[in-house]
Amino acid sequence: MNNSVRTALTGAVAGVVFVATVWTSQVSTPLAAQEGGAAAAQGRGRGRQAGPAQPTPRLPDGTVNLGRVPGEKGTWNVPYITNMAMRVVGADGELLPEIVKLQQDQAAARAGGAGRAGGGRGGGRGGSKSEPWIPWMPWSAAVYDYNSINESKYDPEGYCLPPGGPRMMATPYQMEILQLPEHKRIVMIFEGATHVWREIYMDGRTFPSDAELNPTYLGYSIGRWEGDTLVVENKGFNENSWFDYFGHPHTDKMSVVERWTRPNKQTLHYAATVTDPGAYTRPFTVAWDIQLNPASELPEYICQENNRYLNRLEDDFGQPIFGPRPQPGSKPGASPRGTR
Amino acid sequence: MRRLVWIAMVVCALAVPAALQAQFGHPLKGQWSGEWGPKDKPNRLLLNFEWDGKEITGTINPGPSAAVVKAVVFDYSNPSSWGVKITAEGKDASGQPVLISVDGKLENIGAYMKHLHGTWTQGGQKGDFAVTRN
C-alpha cells in the first residue's frame, strides 16, 4: 500500500475513534440528570394555581405581559402532554365532544376498577383507529400505529433531541417569556427539552423564501399582536422530531399558527393550529392552559448528560442502536445492557 | 501529506454525527444505499426518494443511467414491516428502456438504520436486494 494512502487511512481511523470516544463519553457521563433528575425535582411541570385569579399584567405601553412582573419571580410550568390528539379543539376552542366522551368513559372505567382505560399515559395507546378525529394520511396512521406498538421507544426526545413545534409547549419543564419590545423580539427560554430557546421576530418581517429557510427543530417564528393575543406563525421545521411523546409524525411541510393569551396573571392559554399537508389531510388545532409557578426561577437542566436510555435502546432486530454491540457468542438479542 | 490526513479526519468527524441524523417524516423519504443481485457480483444501488404529500417520487442510481421511479405502492397491514412495491423505468447498456420492479419490505421503520429488502427484477434479471437508509 502506498505510504500516503496508508497514512491517510490511519488518520481516518484515528478520526473515527476520536469522535466516537468523545460522543460515547458524552452519553455516559455518570450524573443523575436523566433518571429522576431535574424534571422530577421540579414537579414535572404541573401547575400550582396561586389563589384567586389576579388581573393580567401589562407592559407600560399596555401590551399584555406574558412574562414576569418586574420585581417578582415566576416561570411557566409547561404541562406534560403526552398525546396531543387528546387536546384537539373545535372552532369554539373547546375540546372535541368525542374526546370529552372518551375521557368520561375512561374516568368511569377507572372508577369501576378497570385500571387505566386503554393503558399508557395521557389517554390510551390504541393507535390511529382510537383517534378518528385526527386527519390521518395512510402512512402517518401506519407510523403512529408502529410507535404505539413499540411504546414510543424511538422517541427522539428520549435521545435528548429538541421537541419540534407545539411539543415545546408540552414538555414538562419550566419556561420563561422575555418580551423585548425595544428589540422587536420575544424570547422564550426553556429549562428542559435540551435547554433551548425560541426567538420570535416581532419586527413585521416576512418569511425567508423556502430556499433560504434553514429547516430547524423549532422553525422560524414571526409574531404579531392581535388585540391581547400574541399570534405567532411558524414554518421551516425539520423532520427530526415527533409531534408528541405518543409519536404523531410530522413532515417538513408543517406550518403552525400559535395563539397566546394571558386571561389572568396565573394562566397562559396556548393554542396551535397545525397544517401539515405531508402527514395530515387537513389542519387541526390543539390547546391547553399553562400555569404560573410564582415562586420559581429557571433552574438548570441538561438533558444530554447521562442519557442512559440511549445505551439501552435496541432496534427492531434487537441490536443496540447506540450502545455497545453484543460480543460474539452472547445470547441473541441480549445486549450487554439489555432493554427488556 | 499532513493536509490529506487532516482532510480525512475532518471528513470522518463530520460523517459520524451525520450518520446519527434522525429523520422521522415519511419513512421512505431520503437516500438509501445497498446492492442487488448475486453476492459474488452485486450491483450497487443508490436510491433517492422524495415525498411531496401526495406521492413518492425518486431516482435509482442517479447519473446518466438513472432510472426514474414511476410508482410506489405501500401495504401497511403490518405496521412494523411495510410492504413496498416500486416500479421504475431505466435503460439497459444499449440505451433501450428497461423495466425495474421491486417487491420489498420496509423494516426498522422507527430507527435511524431503516432497512428495505426483497426481490429486485430488472429486465430479464432477478435477485435479492437490500438497502439501508443513509
Share in β-strands of chain B = over 45%
Q: Classify the helix fraction of chain B into a percent range.
A: 10-25%
Number of domains of chain B: 1
Distance between the termini of chain B: 30 Å
**Class by alpha and beta content of chain B:** mainly beta
Strand order, sheet with most strands of chain A: 1-3-4-5-6-7-8-9-10
Task: List unreliable stretches of 5+ residues of chain B.
Answer: 11-19
Shape of chain B: globular
Radius of gyration of chain B: 17 Å
Number of helices of chain B: 1
Strand content of chain A: 15-25%
Largest inter-chain contact set? A-B, 47 and 36 residues
Beta strand count of chain B: 8
The biggest beta sheet of chain A is recorded as:
9 strands, mixed, barrel
Query: Low-confidence parts of chain A, pLDDT < 50 over ≥5 residues?
Result: 1-47, 116-123, 331-340
The rounded distance between the terminal residues' Cα atoms of chain A is 46 Å
Radius of gyration of chain A: 22 Å
According to CATH, the fold-level topology of chain B is Lipocalin
Oligomer: heterodimer
Structure description:
The complex is a heterodimer of chains A (340) and B (134). By secondary structure, chain A is of the alpha+beta class. Chain A is built from 5 helices and 10 strands; from the N terminus they run ααββααββββββββα. Chain A has a 9-stranded mixed β-barrel with strand order 1-3-4-5-6-7-8-9-10. In chain A, a hairpin with a 2-residue loop joins β6 and β7 (229-235). The longest helix of chain A is centred in the N-terminal third of the chain and has 25 residues, at 3-27. Chain A starts with a helix and ends in a 28-residue tail after the last helix. Chain B is mainly β and 134 residues long. Helices cover 13% and strands 51% of the residues of chain B. Chain B is built from 1 helix and 8 strands. Chain B has an 8-stranded antiparallel β-barrel. Chain B is globular. At the A-B interface, α1 and α4 of A face α1 of B.
